[in-house]
Specification:
Elements: H1 11-27, E1 34-41, E2 45-52, E3 68-69, H2 74-87, E4 109-113, E5 119-122, H3 130-134, H4 147-156, H5 166-169, H6 186-198, H7 202-214, H8 225-229, E6 234-238, E7 241-245, E8 264-265, H9 267-278, H10 292-298, E9 330-332, E10 337-339, E11 352-356, E12 360-365, E13 370-375, E14 378-379, H11 384-401
Parallel strand pairs: 6-14
Antiparallel strand pairs: 1-2, 1-13, 3-8, 4-5, 6-7, 9-10, 10-11, 11-12, 12-13
Length: 403
Amino acid sequence: MSIADLDTVDPKRIAEEAGKVLRERTTGEPRVPGVVAGVTTDQRTVYLEAVGLRASDADHAMTTDSVFALFSMTKAITATVALQLVGERRLDLHAPASEYAPAIADLEVIEGFDDDGNPRLRPPASAVTTHQLLTHTAGFGYSFFDETYHRLETEHRQPPMSESTHAALRTPLLFDPGTAWEYGSNIDWVGQVIEGITGRRLGDVMSDRVLSPLGMSDTAFTLSGDTRHRRAIMHHRRGNTLIADPQWERTRDPEVHMGGQGLYSTVPDYLRFLRMWLRDGESDSGDQVLRPEVVELALRNHIGDLTVKKLPGVMPELSNDAEFFPGTPKSWSYAFMINDVDVPTGRPAGSQSWAGLGNLYYWIDPVDKIGGVWATQILPFADPTSMGGYLDFETAVYRALSV
């Protein structure tokens, strides 16, 4: 029986424990300028708080409806749409993804560079499938986590993924599909699969199928006048100095709605999304966004004996070395990373989580029916102050639940 079933969740206790963490992280040194954090059970939001400033160089308070660039927190929403199509038998996860997104069939495997510095390419041993795309086993990487991709960008004019173009998507594979786990642009290609099936832009499909049914009115691939006004400003940490970058913004009119990284949202909106997963696919209003059997299927380990590995920070301006709970085994479901054993924060084995490049973090715990979000806007990723704050926040929530 879950914590939520036992009705032992005390919002005041969570607020007391979690609030301490938020205030410590926004007032100490090094610090984060501002953070929004929230906790939900499968029934309701039980904690939501904003502390600090939206920008370190301006007197604009962070608010609970502040808008964040989600980066890779976009991935789980894209995966949800794909799983809906699986449930409708419109998407075969094990068919070649090129049946839905033909351009993926043209991509080859890169085996390094020749003596002149040119890429050595060969055809893949098998076709990429959507199953592999959803589990990060298709062969795609990211330039800030992989030296080969970084070299393609710096020496061969491969457009960065941040440009949100078709050209940016068309990177070679790092290995034959299905033979390894590598975190990368796989879910951006899932977005292309969805567009191929539906004949519509990803953002429109998301809005109709997920965002509107869940009441996620502040979530979109572009900012409106209102959401731009509420946007949390990106910061760059240089040593112990935080530099606000008010000009930073994702592409205003993206050529491609990038399913792996493109959305803006708020913490209350994302809590609604997590709550849907905790309540077997049902929205707050009773809409069945995902069928319960699809949720059960989705949350299983789908990479077998492969394991989630440490992500090396190849581009220090964008990411430090990153790994959750070093030394513990981790696998991957169709939407999230799975911790295969209990972890020090108090989260049990089988719980699922992930993050966004701007130091946003979240988890869902299907055992205790609880989940949470920690949102900041700081680069590089795996910023010790931000990531440490998130882990302290998660620990505080489980400590409050255990009282």
